[in-house]
């Protein structure tokens, strides 16, 4: 028994070194060399300002911007404590949030169109960077009105930012909300 | 498009698993393929450091003792790292020591290949704890499972032998030749898609709307690669692979989903080669696929239909060219319904437990299938190694039942199945079931158990049932609304995990030892062929019957009642 423990201790030591130290270090070095931007969070830098990450959603509730998915983190889109709502399908709280969001969308310009479900549900991470193309198009009238822009121009901007499925069939077509809003500001 | 994605996933999985399975068989037989030979000096150096010889064989008791000693020390190391992380380096976000009960839970969780997360990764663990504690156990707990499977395979192939191989050799070969190279490649491809890999503290961004956003960083890709491949499932971030920095694109998602089942599927081919009859491995793989595929279809259908509240609210729920539709609560847009459905089934069929969508927010009947797959005992693919040895226990029961029907002594792969094997196979199948049902019952009766529930009514019961199912079968996923980071749940679930792991592993090794000591019986005219459709159906029926009879009463109180309430 003592011999087994002795071997086990040495084995744990050497495998810890291999898989716990050398492996992550090797991957880090290779990642930083080959994919520097991605390995560091795909950050967006505007001049001196760190604007955010291409992959991490930001909170938008101003009418002048396109809005993203609902976020269940506190505060919304908290990228240091990701979380979904974890509300069950029969939870009255979930129905209340759903109704509140629908009422809000209905009251704004263009709100009488059919509402895409992704615009009224919380994402899994609370940090979803994307909305569906349908959800972006739904918001065109509101954003155009708030900015005093012709809807056609905003529409053209949205269409430019629609990304298709990977290889034509994997995943979902999407619009990156932060990228769209940055283009809107420019 | 949804159906195309599901079909594509299953086809690619089998296509990749076959060559990997052959590769692994050659590794375990000690005939290193040319592409792996350059790692041999590393393997030899490890044996030299540990004072071992590669040809030192062990009987089943010694094999089990080595496995237990190694797992126990690993468990203690993870516990110590969490308790002391405040004083240790690589802690840029200044995380304090983790509480004793949470540390115990997490240490057990990672040593048993469960990877239940009672904690939030980016808010609790230092980079050092993630790497030296959790990442290491991701590798070695997976390798332990693979080792025990290979030992069981030797039980079938050896004649009148007192040994079943060396735990240390099987452990080292699984790690060095299989898990490490695959992880390095996968991690780098994931980084190319946008998964972070650095040692930085959180960065602070100034958002377009003028707020500050702190974004967590860390060595995520290296941990994610092995948590997927090793059916571990403990994510780097709290929301696991739903986090855009953990699973940024549809392509990264495809790779992560394939990795969940890849090694478990490959081991079916490996087993076929080890027992010198490839058809045996194919029959086992077919049995797994027969259960897996319909479950994906069911989840896809129920999730696409949406919840009753969403239907009543009149929002767009049907999939179209410009939107996913369906129950998008707790799902990521880039992944949509189909990829969330595939993942939820793959991760619960395998004892992976990583998630890319929040199972707690699934429709009642959409969430039923993942929970039931866990309750089947994690034998439909299951954990790497542990899934297949679990299914082989069911195969022993299946040939025994068939033997009873025709009045012959049952045999499997040329070995007579006797009372000893049957007793221990039954014990190993039933032990996790007892842990799940007993644990759930206790939690429901105690205030400390009920206090953790987040959602009212039947869904709250489902949360507790899911938690004990997950722990007792070493899965690790959750209906995450449950506040499980309390002394009661940390300790109760910790013990459920220990039962689900070691009270299965030890009987498997005992059976391996008993089988290895037996003579080979040549197949006769009365032998039940175990590679045909008849056996596949018999095996699947055995798994489904045990799973159904044990858990349908409990499921009726949870998801089924909830579905009825939702429609009421």
Describe the secondary-structure layout.
The complex is a heterodimer of chains A (186) and B (568).
Chain A (H helix, E strand, L loop, with lengths): L1 H33 L1 H4 L3 E4 L2 E5 L38 H15 L23 E2 L1 H6 L1 H8 L3 H10 L1 E2 L10 E3 H9 L1
Antiparallel strand pairs in A: 1-2, 3-5, 4-5
Chain B lengths: L1 H27 L11 H11 L9 H25 L15 H12 L9 H4 L2 H31 L9 H27 L9 E4 L5 E4 L4 H10 L20 H25 L3 H28 L2 H6 L22 H14 L14 H12 L10 H21 L4 E2 L2 E2 L2 H27 L1 H4 L7 H15 L14 H30 L16 H35 L1
Antiparallel strand pairs in B: 1-2, 3-4
Helix pairs in contact in B: 1-9, 1-10, 1-12, 2-7, 3-4, 3-6, 3-18, 4-18, 6-7, 6-8, 6-18, 7-8, 8-9, 9-10, 9-12, 10-12, 10-13, 10-19, 12-13, 13-17, 13-19, 14-15, 14-19, 15-17, 15-18, 17-18, 17-19
Descriptive account of the structure:
The complex is a heterodimer of chains A (186) and B (568). With 186 residues, chain A is mostly helical. Chain A has seven helices and five strands, in the order ααββαβαααββα. Chain A has helices spanning 2-34, 36-39, 92-106, 133-138, 140-147, 151-160, 177-185; strands at residues 43-46, 49-53, 130-131, 162-163, 174-176. In chain A, α5 (140-147) crosses α6. Chain A is elongated and about 75 Å long. In chain B, β3 (411-412) and β4 form a beta hairpin. In chain B, 64% of the residues lie in helices and 2% in strands. In chain B, α1 (2-28) packs across α9. In chain B, the strands form two sheets. Chain B has a two-stranded antiparallel ribbon with strand order 1-2. In chain B, strands 3-4 form a two-stranded antiparallel sheet. Chain B has 568 residues and is an all-alpha fold.
> Largest sheet of chain A at a glance?
3 strands, antiparallel
| Alpha-carbon Rg of chain B, integer | 23 Å
Question: What is the N-to-C succession of helices and strands of chain A?
Answer: HHEEHEHHHEEH
Level of helix content of chain A? 40-55%
**What is the average per-residue confidence, as pLDDT of chain B, rounded to a whole number?**
93
Largest interface: A-B, 106 and 133 residues
Global morphology of chain B: globular
The stretches of 5 or more residues of chain A where confidence is low (pLDDT under 50) are none
């Amino acid at each position: 028994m003592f011999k087994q423990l002795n071997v086990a201790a040495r084995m744990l030591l050497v495998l810890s070194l291999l898989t716990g130290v050398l492996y992550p270090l090797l991957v880090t070095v290779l990642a930083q060399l080959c994919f520097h931007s991605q390995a560091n969070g795909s950050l967006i830098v505007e001049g001196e300002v760190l604007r955010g990450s291409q992959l991490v959603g930001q909170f938008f509730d101003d009418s002048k911007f396109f809005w993203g998915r609902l976020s269940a983190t506190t505060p919304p889109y908290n990228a240091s404590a990701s979380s979904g709502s974890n509300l069950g399908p029969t939870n009255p709280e979930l129905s209340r949030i759903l109704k509140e969001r629908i009422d809000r969308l209905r009251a704004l310009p263009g709100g009488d169109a059919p509402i895409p479900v992704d615009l009224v549900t919380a994402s899994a991470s609370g940090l979803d960077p994307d909305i569906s193309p349908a959800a972006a198009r739904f918001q065109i009238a509101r954003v155009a009105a708030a900015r005093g822009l012709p809807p056609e121009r905003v529409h053209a901007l949205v269409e430019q930012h629609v990304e298709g499925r990977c290889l034509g069939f994997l995943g979902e077509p999407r619009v990156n909300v932060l990228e769209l809003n940055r283009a809107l500001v420019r | 498009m949804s159906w195309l994605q599901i079909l594509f996933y299953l086809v690619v999985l089998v296509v990749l698993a076959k060559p990997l399975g052959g590769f692994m068989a050659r590794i375990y037989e000690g005939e290193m393929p040319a592409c792996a030979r350059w790692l041999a000096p590393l393997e030899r150096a490890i044996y030299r450091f540990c004072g071992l010889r590669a040809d030192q064989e062990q009987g089943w008791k010694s094999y089990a003792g080595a496995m237990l000693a190694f797992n126990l020390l690993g468990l203690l190391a993870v516990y110590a790292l969490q308790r002391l992380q405040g004083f240790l380096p690589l802690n840029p976000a200044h995380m304090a020591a983790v509480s004793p009960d949470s540390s115990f839970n997490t240490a057990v969780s990672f040593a048993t290949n469960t990877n239940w997360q009672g904690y939030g990764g980016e808010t609790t663990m230092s980079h050092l704890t993630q790497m030296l504690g959790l990442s290491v156990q991701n590798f070695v707990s997976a390798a332990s499972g693979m080792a025990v499977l290979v030992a069981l395979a030797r039980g079938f192939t050896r004649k009148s032998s007192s040994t079943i191989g060396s735990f240390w050799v099987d452990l080292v070969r699984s790690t060095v030749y299989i898990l490490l190279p695959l992880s390095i490649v996968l991690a780098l491809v994931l980084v190319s898609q946008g998964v972070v890999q650095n040692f930085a503290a959180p960065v602070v961004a100034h958002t377009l709307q003028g707020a500050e956003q702190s974004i967590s960083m860390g060595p995520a890709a290296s941990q994610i690669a092995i948590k997927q491949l090793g059916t571990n499932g403990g994510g780097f971030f709290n929301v696991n692979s739903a986090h855009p920095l953990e699973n940024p694109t549809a392509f990264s998602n495809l790779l992560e989903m394939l990795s969940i089942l890849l090694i478990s599927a490959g081991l079916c081919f490996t087993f076929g080669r080890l027992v010198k009859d490839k058809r045996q491995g194919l029959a086992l793989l077919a049995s797994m696929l027969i259960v897996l595929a319909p479950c994906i279809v069911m989840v896809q259908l129920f999730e696409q239909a949406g919840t009753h509240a969403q239907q009543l609210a009149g929002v767009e729920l049907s999939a179209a060219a410009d939107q996913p539709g369906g129950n998008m609560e707790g799902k990521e847009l880039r992944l949509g319904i189909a990829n969330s459905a595939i993942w939820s089934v793959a991760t619960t069929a395998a004892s992976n437990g990583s998630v890319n969508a929040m199972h707690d927010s699934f429709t009642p009947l959409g969430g039923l299938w993942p929970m039931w797959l866990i309750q089947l005992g994690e034998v439909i693919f299951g954990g790497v190694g542990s899934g297949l040895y679990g299914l082989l226990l069911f195969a022993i029961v299946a040939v025994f039942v068939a033997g009873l029907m025709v009045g012959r002594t049952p045999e499997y792969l040329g070995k007579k199945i006797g009372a000893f094997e049957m007793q221990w196979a039954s014990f190993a199948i039933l032990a996790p079931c007892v842990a799940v049902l007993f644990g759930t019952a206790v939690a429901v009766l105690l205030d400390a158990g009920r206090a953790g529930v987040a959602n009212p009514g039947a869904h709250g019961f489902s949360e507790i049932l899911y938690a004990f199912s997950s722990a007792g079968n070493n899965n690790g996923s959750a209906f995450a609304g449950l506040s499980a980071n309390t002394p009661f749940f940390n300790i109760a679930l910790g013990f459920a995990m220990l039962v689900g792991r070691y009270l299965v592993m030890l009987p498997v090794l005992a059976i391996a030892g008993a089988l290895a000591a037996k003579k080979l019986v040549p197949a006769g005219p009365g032998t039940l062929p175990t590679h045909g459709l008849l056996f596949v159906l018999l095996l699947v029926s055995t798994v489904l019957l045990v799973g159904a009879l044990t858990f349908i009463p409990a499921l009726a109180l949870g998801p089924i009642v909830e579905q009825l309430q939702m429609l009421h």
